[in-house]
């Protein structure tokens, strides 16, 4: 079966002006409809890679090809939710698009329903749990019709129950809507939810494939 490529990274390198090399001839491919995870030690270049994919940073050498539009979900939702209420925040992401009032209302309610938050549309952001805030950020990306979702340690601030709720929800969204997702994590239990995983070390993909194999390998390194 051939699968079309949603994210292609080819021989990508990136250094900060200070000279430290963060990505070093990094390559990976992700097919449309895949839920992939990216693992690696602190400083291995995971966040930098996501920022290059999202166009928030420019690479010096190598290529990035993205089929579609990218939505980004950060570790701390308080850095990305800007409006006072749930519905207003999702609508705010649509200001650049030429939509009628009714179209905006439709997109907001449809995207909140997709993350099971339809009942919280009028709720102030400050009154949400961490997991609910992350779902508002995801609804924002869905409202903008992003087909590629990048997650930078989205569960780092969540307790175990909300962590597993979120990753399960993202898996369902990816599978029911044919989205593509790349999810950075340090929490190995989350590997149970993805299709494929990549291990980054010193700015290069050093291993990739079956998440359960990678999980065993990483936990044996961590314990050994
Ligand atoms: N704005 C910046 N200027 C200079 N160096 C930076 C900047 N941002 C990150 N770095 C450095 O780039 C390297 C890679 O950082 P990056 O955040 O991509 O790693 P990471 O794998 O996401 O790590 P973590 O798991 O800790 O989030 C680190 O050594 C970091 O100190």
TrEMBL record:
Keywords: ATP-binding, Nucleotide-binding, Transport. InterPro entries: AAA+_ATPase (IPR003593), ABC_transporter-like_ATP-bd (IPR003439), ABC_transporter-like_CS (IPR017871), ABC_transpr_CbiO/EcfA_su (IPR015856), Molybdenum_import_ModC (IPR050334), P-loop_NTPase (IPR027417). Residues 7-221 form the ABC transporter domain. The keyword Transport applies. The keyword ATP-binding applies. One of its GO terms (molecular function) is ATP binding. This is Energy-coupling factor ABC transporter ATP-binding protein. The lineage of its organism: Bacteria, Bacillati, Cyanobacteriota, Cyanophyceae, Nodosilineales.
